[in-house]
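User: quick one - fold this with 2-acetamido-2-deoxy-beta-D-glucopyranose bound?
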Amino acid sequence: MHTVASQFLGKTDVRGSCCHPAVVAMLLLLCLGFVPTVAPCPPHCLCASDIISCSGSNLSTLPFGLPSYATRLDLSHNALRTMQVAWVSQPFQRLTTLVLSWNSISQIEMAAFTATPRLLHLDLSSNQLRVLNSSVFSGLTELKELLLIGNQIAQIMPGAFSDVNSLQRLYLSANRLTSFPLGLFEDPTGPRNLTFLDLSYNRLSKLPVQSLLSLSRHAGIYLQENPLLCDCALIALLEYWLWKQYRPLVDFQVGYQCRGTAVREVNCTHQDLSDIPLEAQSYRVEPGDWLRVPCPGLGLPVQQGLIVFWVTPRTALNSSASDLRSHLSVFPNGTLEIQGALMEDSGIYECVVARGRYYDSGESPEARVRVGNSSVTSTTGLARRSSGEHFNTAFTTLASCVISIVLVLLYLYLTPCQCRESRGGGSRSCGARAIILCSDPREVESGQRRANGKRVAFLEPQAEDSDISVLKTPVMTLDHISTEGILKNGSRTVGHTLTDLAHEV
Ligand SMILES: *[C@@H]1O[C@H](CO)[C@@H](O)[C@H](O)[C@H]1NC(C)=O
Ligand SMILES: *[C@@H]1O[C@H](CO)[C@@H](O)[C@H](O)[C@H]1NC(C)=O
Ligand SMILES: *[C@@H]1O[C@H](CO)[C@@H](O)[C@H](O)[C@H]1NC(C)=O
Ligand SMILES: *[C@@H]1O[C@H](CO)[C@@H](O)[C@H](O)[C@H]1NC(C)=O
Ligand SMILES: *[C@@H]1O[C@H](CO)[C@@H](O)[C@H](O)[C@H]1NC(C)=O
Ligand SMILES: *[C@@H]1O[C@H](CO)[C@@H](O)[C@H](O)[C@H]1NC(C)=O
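Assistant: Sure. Structure tokens for the protein plus 2-acetamido-2-deoxy-beta-D-glucopyranose:
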């Protein structure tokens, strides 16, 4: 409480004569104890309305009695070693962001995070984790983003991510993983909606190419700067991703060793293969019939040991271990066979094989299959998907900009305690403070006001003379900003859309 009060009151004497009644009223309220009491801010910490920062304080144990009103808690750059189950005395029901980066955490007790069930962002980067035990993140059912960059993780136990089923973005960059964590996708209680997985700067040498062919349709998987063995399957995958303009590969192409001369040394391309132009083919089959689709550009005879993958609308399969009795199979010569065609088999089929070249933009190694009269609904995956995502992001950003401008204008012109024009130059800075000083003290307490059902937090200016820029930079309550906040490690303060906060402090 003292921190908050002194922060606000400290500003009033600067040029604060214009809003005197409000200041006096607030002082009175504070003195008379109208503002409900709030847990005190622990030593070594800074407490704002809903943010607690205990960063860089050489803490080896957690401060006792952290206020539970926080939505963001920053404990980075300390000397913490373990996360115990009882790391807080009472659960943080509102905490959405927890930053634990740059500590020495090597142990996380099982169920340590059950005290923070609302967490959306968890940053455990730059610690000393070596293994992710089973159920280590249990209780984090709403977690969307998890940063584990720069640990020494070599092993991910089965079930490590069970319970974390809302997880969308996982950063495992700069660790010591030697095998691709397929369990992450196969665990039925694990993340269902993982759309971003960063495994760069690890020690992966082999990849489950077939699984990646189907996974990468739904997720961005970053694999650059791994000591990957350049073999025919990997070459096929990389060529295919490039043709698809798969973002994680296009953006970090130089981070793959399997390029140029490395590819030429691996002898897996048939000499004729690179000359045959690739054209999309179309096929039609009646339901229940069978169909054989040759791999575009793959002539006879096929070199011994060449693996041909097919990416089908629902799965991916290869020529090396085909079960010829199954509904879909691939012959050793690369031809795909569909037996007893179903309506759902309609779609685009892509033949992925190491061809030893990049495709021209007009070329395509795909076949369109129509079963019966059904129309081909499935779209050609990655490239279009990612551009759509970018559009969405741009649109969201634009919309939030417009909303923020409107809200700022509302505040500027509808605040009752606006400063009079006659005060000239200095009056604008008054306006900025008026926003805080003239609002309801209980709301001042939490640094927020409501507008149109949304909560907006206004921050005090950093520099005294930046009067106008203050008005332009409110911190909005938009979720996508928080990602930036967590990555910049607290340099930017974040507001969150929580449902009801006003009178709880
Ligand atoms: C941090 O704390 C440890 C003991 O907990 C102490 O030995 C060390 O000197 C402290 N470091 C700094 C920079 O204060
Ligand atoms: C994982 O479990 C083992 C054995 O239960 C324990 O020794 C180790 O500290 C745990 N690791 C972490 C990171 O918690
Ligand atoms: C996954 O995403 C879908 C659609 O965005 C959503 O309906 C579903 O609830 C999400 N599942 C989880 C476990 O978050
Ligand atoms: C080929 O398919 C089989 C069966 O699905 C699978 O076990 C094998 O790993 C695949 N080969 C490659 C190189 O992905
Ligand atoms: C591939 O092999 C199958 C079965 O051996 C055969 O029916 C088909 O004609 C072959 N395809 C090509 C393009 O040679
Ligand atoms: C497909 O379309 C033809 C006419 O275009 C129609 O006679 C036939 O019944 C249709 N078949 C199915 C399975 O819908």
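One thing worth noting: Residues 1-19, 23-37, 378-391, 417-505 have pLDDT under 50 and may be disordered.
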